[in-house]
Amino acid sequence: MLRPGQENPCSPGSKKLVKANPLKHSGLLKKKEIFVGNLPLDIKEEEIAFLFKDFGIKSLRKHNNSFKSFAFLELTAPEAAKLAVKLMNGQLLKGRPMSVAFMENRKIHEVLKTSTPMPDLEVIPARECGFTNGATHISPVNQRACYAVPMEMRSLFLFHVLKGCFGDAKWLRSVVGVAGEVGLLVTDTLPLMPYFWAIVLNEECYKSMEKLFKALAEAEAGLPFLAKQEVQRGARCLAQCDIGDEGSAWNRCWVLDPLGDLAVVFFVDFGRCASLPLNSLRKLDAEQFWEIRPLAQPFMLEEGVFPPQVIRRQILEGTLKGPSQWEPHILRFVVKTD
Predict the structure, then answer these.
(1) Which of 46, 191, 324, 336 has the highest CB neighbour number within 10 Å of its CB?
(2) Model confidence, pTM
(3) Which of these, 328, 319, 309, 331, lies nearest to 138 by C-alpha position?
């Protein structure tokens, strides 16, 4: 039974389950539920869902009145909730630091002074448009929308990845200089968003890809798997990355956080985060594998958004229009139309 003053964290549809084993199930659910406070009054549920999409959302309840706005989220696993609190507490949303805490701690949801703020959300005017390029269809946008810069594209996140993998973050400045008409090999897109990762198709990049993938393919079988205690934040390793219909490919990655028997990693050359079994990561700490800088870089469509289906290994032709307003390393891209 619940103690006096203790709220029932379960939804009405879960009452029978709680009654059967109240200690086990109510405690587990609490660890999967988080409180998100200090939200902008005009924020929509869709925006909150996008911000926390990488943590696996089972349910979301937003509440607001004339003075404040907040939300309760149930995530798929206690480990995901722990990571969400760790990474998202204190991050800026339209100039306001979010307060993210476990449900049982929601009355003391102060923003940690040690939190490092992420850049503000980027407001992108999306005009109604639609076009087709090859097999890729860019969906029209019928109204203005606010699109949060994805965590893995933000300069602060990439700075830590680059410093951990390559020893410096000079790459962030170098990618800004790419301009003019280009062909881009898309490595990942964000559904219903303008953001995507792609490799610039030029002679230098072809040489880098050939050299890197040949070296990884030759070394893969002889590389040892990481022991569980070696899988720590900042570890450089090799893992299989999903590349679409053609299956998967071994790629360089950087460990963000271990979560039980899984590890959240960032694939350096594809611009993608993934959760992988700990026992699938191979050790890749020799400097020879980190001489080539990341192959893919972040872009955003000047107009329109991508369809709900993730697009990978498609070539887009068009023109780069310079850096975005809030994150200069994210270049604006206009798709060539026939």
Answers:
(1) 324
(2) 0.60
(3) 309
